[in-house]
Amino acid sequence: MSLRASKRSLQDQVEFALAWLKRHRTKATLEGMARYGIPSDHAYGVAMRDIKALGTMLGHNQPLAVALWGTGVYEARMLASFVGEPGRLTATQMERWCRDFDNWALCDAMSFNLFDRTPHAWAKVAQWSRRSREFEKRTAFALLWSLTVHDKSAADEAFERGLLLIEREAGDERHFVKKAVNMALRAIGKRNLALNAAAVRVARRLAASDDATARWIGKDALRELTSRALTARPKA
Length: 236
Fold this sequence. Notes:
about 0% strand; single chain; about 65% helix; elongated
């Protein structure tokens, strides 16, 4: 019987998940985390494909997601991004989790697997884009990036507002912020032809900036956004 169909207590489910993760850990995965800038102090060393497989086994369960996050274990927190329920995830809980982020992988996993499917996503992009802490701010732009992929119904105007945030924050030189700002700019420009033109205009202004970080973001984005392959066949 799958855990999804069982009547295990919440604590039993957490213990089951942690035990499963421990059985799937490897020394190579744990040691490899450092190469990607991911702290391993509270990690087992479980590959993402295995975490995702466990998430599929468990199914969506918001109380379990909250409990998994509370363990502080890296893989359990990653797992929370797969089992969380977008419709039950409150803006307050999103805020609590965002404040706990201490690496780019959690920012991106939560953004792409869960946050971007909630009704609070766009408001959080705007709110978090003004944050001073590196990973809270990264989450704003990782979330904007993920919305370009998963929010099929969003109007271009929403992404145009995102471009304003990108241009405003393009001078943040911190590595994990500038990389996310760059990826969000490129992703918006790949959504459709009109947004490609809007993103190129922003990228050109950034490329001409006196600020070194903004200049890097603009020039790097322009290489992709003005490529023949992209402009000839813009993503719908």
